[in-house]
């Protein structure tokens, strides 16, 4: 009598774990850990911003101790716990020269960080930045024209007004030229932006050619970017644009996440892709134009900062956007402090410094991304 299949059954087989299962478990574990890691990141960025701002305000040709800077801030809030700056002149310098400059660095850095994150979300590409839609090139041409032809219709605000209007107008022109049949394809928008940037570059070269020596030097210095001469009045002009732009960006964060799934999927989920795209491009133009209008062109902040943030936090824009704002502000405060402290008696152009550091750093990021299997996530 032969035994049936049940008689031959041995011990229950063990369940083997495939490499794919291990990978899935590891990915799930990373996703579970992300919220805590992102909360820590935002907290670290917040503390870093406060410390960097206070340290920057005390740095300069006449250094002020950190405790005295903090004491002056607390004194303005009605709290007298720490010593004040030794002389009245130091306190005046702190609040009329250094804090306006630090505040401008915070506002401009946050605006550029948000603008870069928006562009990368809209285009679905971590290499996108605000200059893709021509805002920086348009601002440079308009500012150069006002310097070359000595326009004074807005007094001391003329260059800033022209830069803001030029950046916004160029972005709207790029979008209008890229639009066809009621829709705008991303590839067409990028190619149109490249063409407009080329034309703007030619226009800027022509203005440099016809300008006199003094105007030419002023144009070149404006292009290099600088926070020197920042005042509270300038901060008060840029701040509303930055706040409104960042708030709109945060409101659109969820729809940006849906857009990352693809245009067709986003439409099925109720996203008006065309309206979202034009709103975010206009917001990016407002943020960038407001930032460069008083400070000139500050390169690489809108490109590198959101890219690095996305590598740390993951693709979710509800974290990427605020982290990019805070990281952009922190980077610009540190860069400006370095620019005015690196060479004694000199104020280096901040745009030159960010390009000098940002270029090689971004090249390293590209090489690192190519060697890894990751990208956005």
In short:
This protein is an all-alpha fold. The chain contains 15 helices and two strands.
Give an overview in words.
The protein is mainly α. The protein has a single domain (68-371), classed as ABC transporter involved in vitamin B12 uptake, BtuC (Orthogonal Bundle), CATH 1.10.3470.10. The chain is built from 15 helices and two strands. A two-stranded antiparallel sheet has the order 1-2. A hairpin with a 2-residue loop joins strand 1 and strand 2 (183-184). Helix 2 runs parallel beside helix 14 (317-341), helix 5 (135-148) packs antiparallel against helix 8 (213-224) and helix 13 packs across helix 14 (317-341). The longest helix is centred in the first third of the chain and has 40 residues, at 19-58. The radius of gyration is 25 Å and the shape is globular. The N and C termini lie far apart (62 Å). The model is unreliable at 1-20 and 373-377 (pLDDT under 50).
Task: Draw up the topology in text.
Layout: H1 5-8, H2 19-58, H3 66-76, H4 88-123, H5 135-148, H6 158-178, E1 179-180, E2 183-184, H7 186-210, H8 213-224, H9 232-251, H10 253-259, H11 263-268, H12 273-295, H13 301-313, H14 317-341, H15 350-371
Antiparallel strand pairs: 1-2
Helix pairs in contact: 2-3, 2-4, 2-14, 4-9, 4-12, 4-13, 4-14, 5-6, 5-7, 5-8, 5-12, 6-7, 6-12, 9-12, 13-14
């Amino acid at each position: 009598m032969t035994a049936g299949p049940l008689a031959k059954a041995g011990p229950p087989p063990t369940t083997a774990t495939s490499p794919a299962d291990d990978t899935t478990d590891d990915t799930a574990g990373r996703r579970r850990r992300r919220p805590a890691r992102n909360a820590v990141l935002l907290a670290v960025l917040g503390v870093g911003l406060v410390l960097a701002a206070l340290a920057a305000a005390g740095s300069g040709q006449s250094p002020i101790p950190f405790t005295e800077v903090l004491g002056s801030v607390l004194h303005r809030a009605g709290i007298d716990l720490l010593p004040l700056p030794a002389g009245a002149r130091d306190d005046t310098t702190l609040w009329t020269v250094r804090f306006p400059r630090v505040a401008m660095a915070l506002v401009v850095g946050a605006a550029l960080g948000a603008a870069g994150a928006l562009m990368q979300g809209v285009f679905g590409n971590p290499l996108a930045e605000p200059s893709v839609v021509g805002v920086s090139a348009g601002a440079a041409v308009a500012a150069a024209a006002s310097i070359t032809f000595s326009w004074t219709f807005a007094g001391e605000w003329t260059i800033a007004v022209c830069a803001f209007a030029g950046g916004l107008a160029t972005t709207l022109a790029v979008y209008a030229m890229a639009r066809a049949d009621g829709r705008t394809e991303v590839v067409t928008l990028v190619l149109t932006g490249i063409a407009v940037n080329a034309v703007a570059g030619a226009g800027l070269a022509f203005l440099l050619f016809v300008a006199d020596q003094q105007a030419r030097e002023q144009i070149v210095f404006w292009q290099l970017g600088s926070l020197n001469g920042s005042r509270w009045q300038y901060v008060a002009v840029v701040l509303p644009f930055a706040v409104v732009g960042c708030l709109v960006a945060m409101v659109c964060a969820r729809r940006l996440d849906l857009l990352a799934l693809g245009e067709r999927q986003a439409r099925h989920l109720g996203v008006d892709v065309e309206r979202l795209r034009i709103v975010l491009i206009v917001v990016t133009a407002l943020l960038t134009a407001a930032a460069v209008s008083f400070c000139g062109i500050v390169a690489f902040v809108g490109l590198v900062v959101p890219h690095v943030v996305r590598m740390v936090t993951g693709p979710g824009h509800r974290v990427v956007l605020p982290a990019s704002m805070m990281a952009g502000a922190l980077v610009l405060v540190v860069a400006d402090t370095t620019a005015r402290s690196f060479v004694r008696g000199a104020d280096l152009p901040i745009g030159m410094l960010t390009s000098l550091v940002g270029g090689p750093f971004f090249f390293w990021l590209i090489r690192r991304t190519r060697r890894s299997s990751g990208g956005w996530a």
